[in-house]
Amino acid sequence: MHYFTTQAVILGILLISLGGTAPSGCERNQGIQGRILFESGNQMPGPGVVREPAKGVQRELRVYPVLHGNQLQGEGNGFYDEPAHPPVKTVTSDTAGYFRVQLPPGEYSLLVQENDRLYANRFDGEGRVFPVKVEAGKMTEVEFKINYAAAY
What we know:
Elements: H1 2-19, E1 31-42, E2 55-56, E3 60-65, E4 79-80, E5 89-92, E6 98-102, E7 106-114, E8 117-119, E9 131-134, E10 139-151
Parallel strand pairs: 1-10
Antiparallel strand pairs: 1-2, 1-6, 3-5, 3-7, 4-8, 7-8, 7-9
């Protein structure tokens, strides 16, 4: 019986530590969650072509207030220098690429630390860099593909 009590206490501590606390103005199940994937090699469709699937990777994800392309310095290949202001949140995905970050409602830009630069490959029609909208009480699902090493 003592064994099961000890296990229950350990499980309770683990669950509490994983839950953490939500930032001010933020509910526990509100923010962004998803997966960071690395895609490389030939991704062109064709007969007999075997495409290598994207793989989940561990990376640092930086969440900024929504950024426009003209706020970033880079070579135009998806790699950028640090923006002028710091991220509002930084989280590291697990070894399979999964991440979850709690945020207040608003619009954000996502960039991934890739080697010694920041990487983002998605823009909207207004020139915003990898924009993601967080709504009150909701988790927004995101798939972030790092695909600079892929051919399409």
